[in-house]
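Case study 2.
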Amino acid sequence: MMESASYFILLIFLGGWLKSCNLVEGAVPSGEELFRSNVNNILERLTVQLSNMPTKDDLAAMEARFTQHLESLKIQIKNLVRSGKEEGSNHKDETKNHRGRRSMDVPDEADYRSHILACEVRKSSFNESCKFMEQLLTLQRDQITTLEEIRNTSSNLSEGVVTILTEVESLKYHINNTLSDFYKEPVKSCGNDSSLTNSIFRNQQLTCDKEWIIIQRRGTPTPPGMDRTNFERSWIDYENGFGSLEGDFWLGLKTIHDLTEEGYTQLLVDLKDWAGEKKYAMYNVFQVAGTQDKYRLKVAGYTGTAGDAVDYHNGYQFSTTDNDNDGYGHINCAQQHRGGWWYKTCAFADLNSIYHNSSTLEKGWIGVMWFPWKGEDYSLKTAEMKIRKTPQLI
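Prediction:
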């Protein structure tokens, strides 16, 4: 049984690494990102597979249920034996009484034969019960031996799984840290001569506007017959990103957080109204926390022409229609404004609300809004959010 467990673990390893070899073998020479992705996926699958294996606690619970069943069976057997003994004792008393009656009465041959037959039936039934009891006791001994084997095997298996999971985490740490230059590829610089060219950050495709990385865009011309990207989305969508880099999109909170961690902490917001007038807002401090803190916003250092609308949201967590983290206790601002944002109670800026094909709103506050410039009843034509590293003074 222990050999089977070891063989099963070995198969998991071999299967995973063979897939790795096949995937890497088929990668194009420039596919370093694909290689890293393959290795990561294999490690994730291996972790999930091993985590789903029965643990020592699972097997212990199974053993406890099995032992409880055996104890119940043992009680039933004792009751059966006790019942047999009582039946035998009653039979003896009945025989004595019968003999006493026979000494006083005239023997009846038919009654005598009937009594003998009943005794034989009782004797046979009790003998069969005893045989059955012996068989059950033998089975119990076999099961106890099997349980001991399960207990020993589960202990060894559990220790092996813990060791494997530890090695997997160690390997991930080694890849993420020791091989950081290979695994965590930095941004291919968005330079002054690379307007709107694509770039890569940790396998995430990016779009640049000169030195700026675009993290959000609204108002891109939509081809006839095509629906505009919907920004009234779930928490998972806002975490992972959605839309098309050639059109309207949201890059994703996870990637935005990672970029700010890498030093891309200056924010530029470009806005345009339906008359073609343009305004901007720049912030020298822009940081987005991780998933544990629900991507809390830190922003400061405004300059620009559009007015400071984002400082109102400073210090607040991100909210969506299905994950309410705003400062309004009894209202879900994301549901009211129909988008995801760092809502307070609720918004002075809301660039992820419903897009309108004109400046007119059906209801105030629900549109691509920048309150300090156009108020709550005007929906902007275009909006872009961009980030970059703070320029270094030489």
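The longest strand covers residues 278-288.
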